[in-house]
Amino acid sequence: MPFDFDERLVDSRQLNDGVGERNRRSRIGLVITGAIGGSLVALYAVAAPFVAPALRKVCLPFVPATTAQVQNVLQVLRRRSGTLVDIGSGDGRIVSTLWSIKTV
Fold first, then answer.
1. Which of 6, 7, 64, 65 could connect to 69 by a Cys-Cys bridge, CB 3.0–4.6 Å?
2. Quick one: DSSP state of residue 82?
3. Where is it found, in Gene Ontology cellular component terms (predicted)?
């Protein structure tokens, strides 16, 4: 039984071609899985603040700031200079009070 060296080389090349194809497919699968997973995490991060209040069993009431609280905020802001940015989470008492003080 003679040993054919060329036959072994052909077999190893075929084996390496199959491994390369499998690695390429595996890499593409990982990229697709990562992209889908990242998209779902981003969607959850964007949608969660809007969906979470609707899922609460107890609805929290709106409680406006008292005059004493507004005065405390104004006292702190008097020591600062620059622009005031309101995030819009209330009824605008602090901004309207500041506006009336600045225009007087």
1. 65
2. S
3. mitochondrion
